[in-house]
Specification:
Distance between the termini: 46 Å
Largest sheet: 7 strands, mixed
Number of helices: 16
Pfam family, one: Phage_Mu_F
Strand content: 15-25%
Number of domains: 2
Helix content: 40-55%
Oligomer: single chain
Number of strands: 12
Radius of gyration: 24 Å
Protein name: Phage minor head protein
Order of helices and strands: HHHHHEHEHEHEEHHHHEHEHEHHEEEE
Structural class: alpha+beta
């Protein structure tokens, strides 16, 4: 079965990422979906029923990956299930049945993708200074009749209609807005100059308590209160994907950075990506030359400063294609050693997040200081050697990885 939403939004753009980044500056515990109202969503992130800070941080990291890295619905669902199990989260709407669970995961995914996408789109439209905006229906198989009635509506970009009717206009709404500089251009883009607003379009329906065609709580333009700031932030997010992923994590408020980075490293979807990355390198396929595995935490910095004398402020764990090739080419050597393959490499984010020990390990062939991380999983002990790459690049870069089998309880 195809993923139409994923197909539309698989490749994020800078304004979308910037709009979502602003929301992660305030993780809001909530008991119901309408605990945040209107434009408060522009600067706050919530998932209805998620009230614990660590749970909310993990959910935010899972959603962030779908937006910042375009990982899609399957990866999000895998992460969501893992997070629910990890925290023992119960009492959330939909948990009682498979259909309910699927609905809830789809709703969280779709709502965040759509609102961030359209907030970024609004920033683009305002920057483009289009004279006219055109409302286009999203093509749903079961359309909302009012949304269908607006399809092709052409209005000046500064018309008050857009303040409350800029989509999405309800859960599951896929409607779009297209800009045009002239009325002729609007017609070419599907606009109908003869279509007009009905009388009372801006009046609350006394029977529903809402504007016609607008879902409860959706009577605002997503990102409307932060469009200028979104454009500023979008200008900093270049050289996709490494730089934009890193910039995203670095620009989070200090109070959110550590929880986000740790949550990010423990997402099953990230481990899947490292496995696929290694497989692509092994097959000789073209890959991104470098990827982040999140910021170092204060605990990492303290441990490394203790053994190396260096404070790695604002450093990231990184993995590149040359390191993968080196790791996969290493022989096992001694009888208690085992070769590292793609499955072992998938453990890298977890090893780096919570090592059992961190030790200095001299210098690399290029003259950079080196540290060694060690972590045990059952009878297997993994060692990862990382190079401290200068203040300009601020990377703790994976150089090699080894594994050995030892009896449980023996020293690592």
């Amino acid at each position: 079965m195809t993923d139409p939403i994923g197909a539309i939004f698989r490749k994020p753009f800078a304004q979308q990422v910037a709009a979502f980044r602003l929301r992660l500056g305030d993780l809001v515990p909530s008991s119901a979906w309408n605990d945040l109202a209107g434009n408060a969503h522009d600067r706050g992130f919530m998932v209805a029923g998620a009230v614990k800070a660590d749970l909310l941080a993990d959910l935010a990291a899972a959603v962030e990956r779908t937006i910042t890295e375009g990982t899609g619905t399957a990866a999000f669902k895998r992460d969501f299930r893992s997070i629910v199990a990890k925290h023992g989260w119960t009492g959330w709407t939909g948990e009682d049945t498979k259909a309910g669970q699927a609905w809830r995961m789809r709703t969280i995914y779709h709502t965040n993708m759509r609102t961030s996408y359209m907030a970024g789109r609004l920033a683009q439209l305002r920057k483009g200074k289009f004279a006219f905006w055109i409302y286009r229906h999203g093509g749903s198989a079961e359309p909302r009749l009012q949304h269908l009635a607006w399809d092709g509506l052409v209005m000046p970009s500064d018309h008050p209609f857009w303040l409350q009717h800029f989509p999405p206009n309800g859960f599951g709404c896929n409607c779009q807005i297209i800009g045009a500089r002239t009325m002729a251009g609007a017609k070419r883009r599907g606009g109908d100059p003869n279509k007009t607003l009905q009388d009372g379009w801006d009046q609350v329906n006394p029977n529903t308590g809402r504007l016609d065609g607008i879902g409860d709580g959706w009577d605002h333009a997503p990102g409307g209160s932060v469009s200028d700031l979104v454009q500023v932030l979008a200008g900093k997010t270049v050289n996709w994907p490494y730089a934009i992923s890193r910039a995203f994590m670095d620009d989070l408020p200090a109070s959110a950075q550590d929880a986000h980075s740790s949550a990010y490293r423990n997402l099953p979807s990230l481990q899947d990506d490292v496995r696929r990355y290694a497989g692509a390198v092994a097959d000789g396929r073209t890959v991104a030359p470098i990827r982040t595995m999140g910021r170092l935490s204060p605990a990492h910095r303290r441990s490394i400063a203790k053994v190396s004398g260096q404070d790695l402020d604002n450093y990231h764990f990184t993995l590149d294609d040359s390191a993968v090739r080196h790791v996969l080419a290493q022989s096992s050597g001694a009888s208690d050693r085992f070769p590292i393959n793609q499955e072992n490499l998938a453990l890298l984010p977890r090893i780096l997040d919570r090592p059992d020990s961190i030790e200095a390990d001299g210098t690399s062939s290029t003259g950079y200081p080196v540290v060694r991380f060690t972590r045990r999983f059952g009878a297997q002990v993994y060692t990862v050697v990382l190079e401290i790459r200068g203040k300009k690049r601020r990377m703790l870069a994976v150089q090699s990885m080894g594994g050995r089998t030892t009896p449980a309880g023996s020293p690592t």
